[in-house]
Amino acid sequence: xxxxxxxxxxxxxxxxxxxxxxxxxxxxxxxxxxxxxxxxxxxxxxxxxxxxxxxxxxxxxxxxxxxxxxxxxxxxxxxxxxxxxxxxxxxxxxxxxxxxxxxxxxxxxxxxxxxxxxxxxxxxxxxxxxxxxxxxxxxxxxxxxxxxxxxxxxxxxxxxxxxxxxxxxxxxxxxxxxxxxxxxxxxxxxxxxxxxxxxxxxxxxxxx
Length: 208
Prior knowledge:
mainly alpha; Glycolipid transfer protein, GLTP; 208 residues
């Protein structure tokens, strides 16, 4: 399902806009919707990002299973998910490879990389390969083995130009794409910050 249709930056913006409630809870349905859009963005760039997009597809699918399963009411928001999964105790949570918390943590790290990369594309001060490498080194690289890091930085050298990226956004002229990135990035950043704080509070940032 995640691969269907073309990428639209507007859809991603609207999904992340809907994510955060007045109580600062992060709703999982729009969160996953935003991620499905980001996956389409990664897939539209070809094989360069397949090592991240394939993993994200699997993680989104796993979370969809939790949200649509028998315990679905516990997976309405990130906060309710954390409360539910921690109720069994931290040790039980750490032992589960399919937990929602562990799955969100993996997406959360990748979201930081995308946030930094999109911010770089918006400001456009460097070549896309440099922007992407810098964003990767400041986020995901710390969690990848050396061989993946090496392959990623080599792959980033083949990235298209900034203009090509802005065209992929599917929102019209370049200026519109830049303006919409300016709108979208703070919403993505807000979701990232709330998640980071929640996971830090419950000591979940290093789940194996």
